[in-house]
């Protein structure tokens, strides 16, 4: 099956929830609602967003 590069699939429910939790951690850390180190906040945002981007491109993730 030859997929076109512009075709995307929706991420699975669990992948989306993991990315959402990581994003919420980064957002709450940014507004000082929770107190974590800056590196944890940064990497939770980067990994969550990267996971969401990869899951859109890779079928079955």
Task: Explain how this protein is built.
- The structure is a single chain.
- By secondary structure, this protein is mainly alpha-helical.
- It has 2 helices and no strands.
End-to-end separation? 18 Å
Radius of gyration from the CA trace?
A: 14 Å
**What is the mean predicted local confidence, pLDDT?**
85
> Which outline best applies?
elongated
Largest sheet: none
Structural class: mainly alpha
H/E element order? HH
The number of helical runs is 2
Q: Stretches where pLDDT falls below 50 for ≥5 residues?
A: none
Helix proportion range: 55-70%
Number of beta strands? 0
Summed up, what is this model?
The chain has 61 residues and is an all-alpha fold.
List its salient traits.
mainly alpha, 2 helices
Give the topology.
Layout: H1 13-30, H2 38-57
């Amino acid at each position: 099956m030859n997929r076109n590069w512009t075709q995307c699939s929706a991420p699975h429910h669990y992948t989306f929830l993991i990315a959402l939790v990581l994003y919420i951690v980064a957002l709450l850390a940014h507004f000082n609602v929770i107190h974590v180190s800056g590196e944890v906040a940064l990497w939770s945002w980067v990994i969550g967003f990267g996971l969401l981007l990869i899951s859109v491109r890779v079928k079955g993730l």
